[in-house]
Write a structure and sequence with these properties.
The chain is mainly alpha-helical and about 400 residues long. The chain is built from 15 helices and eight strands. It has three domains: about 100 residues, no CATH class; about 100 residues, DNA polymerase, domain 1, CATH 1.10.150; about 180 residues, Intergrase catalytic core (hpI Integrase, Chain A), CATH 1.10.443. Belongs to the 'phage' integrase family. Keywords: DNA integration, DNA recombination, DNA-binding.
């Protein structure tokens, strides 16, 4: 099916002043429509062969440039509809060109996806997930507004070029790391997949546009640093509590989101006579079974009657993640640990220093951490290998070998 476009005068509609309008006449699938170009001239100024305003006419360059823009815009509209993979008519070309397309907006579909997450919090989604998606939606809206000067665009307009420009925008305007940009794309990709399911588009532009997740540097505490943190005498109760929560995470591998919801019902005695933590991980929903070591048990006993924990029905008095990470920076400074101490580093420390370094099989570590794939856990094994290599090379240097 061929798309054909030409320009013509509507001489039967000559105005009282002797002028008439140039119309864009386009045909698709044997149907023809016309659109006004807003170019108004006298019939004598029109070159029917070239389909342009004659060069010697008043404002010829300006008027011909306007016709050229209409020509380009209509062909672009046609090409977009072809790329969408959907069946369309000549009326769709006209409506799309005039901004009257029935195509759903990408932000409109994103909002629908957000509503789905919001309605399923606690049933497959966490509130934190909703917050992350809202940030991604905001970044996308700013891009559309600042770069395209629109409040929204048809989801059929989201193509390779759009995604590439969005990626550049994220990195230049916000200075985000590759992995952060990857996360924004991950969220938008899921919105595009939803659009496919709802038959708004036939294929995802992410089939062509690829973005890579770089291997992140997973920092962890060494055995010496962990011991230093555990044995340091602290006079500030606030920091003592934060240390206990961090150490608890180091020896259980639990993420902040899991520790913050840990209640007495998650502490169970098993057939072996030992107490275990049995909990479904917030992020992956997979069940984790974690043995409670003596030092972990001491921490639990220390806060068994702690008012703040009892009031919330929790086993530990956990502050917000932001506050904990802020206090951990103080703690690192006091303990002479030259690392950016965060709650997530405790989980990395569990995977490396506490388990893998002590011969715990990687399959067991993966299960305890609640990883869906062994590949994720293997990252920690590679981190350890790199650390061992660095340490051995350092010894080699000291020995002058």
């Amino acid at each position: 099916m061929r798309f054909y476009l030409c320009f013509a005068l509507r001489k039967e509609r000559i105005r009282k002043d002797g002028t008439c309008t140039v119309f864009a006449r386009f045909t698709y699938n044997k149907r023809r429509l016309e659109l006004s170009t807003s170019v108004i001239i006298r019939p004598d100024d029109w070159d029917e062969v070239k389909q342009l305003v004659k060069d010697n006419s008043k404002n010829a360059d300006t008027l011909n440039n306007r016709l050229k823009k209409v020509d380009t815009a209509l062909h672009d509209t046609y090409n977009r509809l072809v790329s969408s993979g959907k069946t369309f008519t000549v009326d769709d070309i006209k409506n799309e060109f005039l901004g009257k397309s029935d195509s759903k907006g990408v932000l409109e579909v994103f909002d629908y996806y957000l509503k789905t997450i919001e309605n399923n919090i606690g049933h497959g989604y966490a509130y934190r997930t909703l917050k992350h998606y809202r940030v991604s939606r905001k970044k996308l809206a700013v891009f559309i507004q600042s770069q395209l000067r629109k409040k929204d665009i048809p989801i059929t307009d989201v193509d390779y070029n759009f995604l590439n420009q969005f990626d550049i925008h994220l990195k230049t305007e916000y200075g985000v790391h590759q992995n952060t940009a990857w996360n924004y794309h991950k969220h938008l990709k899921r919105v595009m997949n939803l659009a496919i399911s709802m038959e708004y588009i036939q294929k995802s532009p992410y089939n062509q546009f690829k973005t890579k997740l770089e291997q992140a540097n997973r920092n962890f505490l060494t055995k010496d640093e962990l011991h230093r943190l555990e044995t340091k005498s602290l006079e500030i109760d606030r920091l003592s509590i934060v240390r206990d929560i961090f150490i608890f995470a180091c020896y259980t591998g639990l993420a902040y989101s899991d520790i913050s919801k840990l209640s007495p019902r998650h502490i169970q005695k098993r057939d072996d006579g030992n107490q275990w933590i049995i909990i479904n991980r917030t992020k992956t929903k997979s069940q984790c079974s974690i043995p409670i070591y003596p030092n972990v048990l001491k921490i639990l006993e220390r806060y068994a009657d702690y008012p703040e924990a009892l009031l919330k029905g929790r086993v530990l008095p956990v502050a917000s993640n932001q506050k904990l990470n802020s206090y951990l920076k103080e703690l690192a400074n006091i303990c002479n640990i030259n690392k950016n101490l965060t709650m997530h580093m405790a989980r990395h420390t569990f995977a490396t220093t506490v388990t893998l370094s002590n011969g715990v099989p990687i399959e067991t570590v993966s299960k305890v951490l609640g990883h869906k794939s062994l590949k994720i856990t293997q990252i920690y094994a590679r981190v350890l290998e790199n650390k061992i290599s660095e340490d051995m090379m350092a010894i080699k240097g000291k020995l002058g070998m």
